[in-house]
Specification:
Length: 280
Amino acid sequence: TVREAGGDSIVSLSNATHKAINRKSIIEKRLLFALDQQHLKVLYQPQVNIHSGKIDAVEALVRWEDDEIGVVSPDELIPIAEETGLINNIGSFVIEEACKQAAKWHNEGLDLKISINLSVREFRDKNMAKTILETLETTRCPANLIQIEITEKFALEAEAETSIIKQMLKLENEGIVFILDDFGTGYASFRYMQLLPIKILKIDQMFISSLLKSEKTQRLINGMVQFGKSMNLTVLAEGVETKQQQQILKEYGCDAIQGYLISKPVTHDAIRKLIKLPMK
Ligand code: C2E
Ligand code: MG
Ligand code: MG
Ligand code: MG
């Protein structure tokens, strides 16, 4: 009967909710342990100049495989970490790893920029800029080798919080470059373009993946590239998987690409090897 069906769905819904809450608390518990045991890792994905094929930078992406619960993807991990506050610990870890790595490469004569993803929650910490600058110092990493990727959601919230903008300007003043990540998928507020020190526009992979499928998407992407250019920004496209996508992006005037066409995220050793190969 209807009543029974209704009853069932209520039971199964609360079961699903219960499972989700359970999973979250397991992840939280295991994450605390993983952070303590230094079980998190960082992989790097090249960002390549579309004309020269040279690797200009690499994006640091966190990886976690837990002994008990297996691989937890960043798409599951990051939102839970944000909710529980553990994002600050992940952030500190990734920042330190990235600075150490950039400094190490720098000492080997390789000036490769490293991009770090930071969430707005991390910047609510009033000491964020200070912590980053201190890490640069202790690791002896030149500030101009570090880029920070923020999302549109971040940009929108930062706009409302003067202390976040102040911290960004402080970091920019030291030579750190800000990238607007996942461009086009958030909120269409152009006000943050006016307020925030953004140098690179990163077009979201969602657009790139449908680039060849629709003319409308092509016009949209072309428009985004032209917008970036008119704002004197460097335009980077993420999620580039095919030569065809690369070719069209080049025609539009896109400056740099990142994606499986070049390489998946890999270890720092593998990046070292990739540098020695021509990327075109
Ligand atoms: P994102 O910053 O937009 O990173 C791009 C994501 O797309 C990465 O997934 C990358 O592995 C994937 N990707 C790169 N090239 C391709 C491609 O050609 N095709 C496809 N299909 N995918 C591609 P990942 O590593 O799973 O990270 C997902 C998201 O999690 C990131 O999106 C970022 O927002 C967040 N994230 C990752 N690491 C960190 C971190 O250390 N801190 C913070 N706050 N967020 C992070
Ligand atoms: Mg990113
Ligand atoms: Mg992105
Ligand atoms: Mg993305």
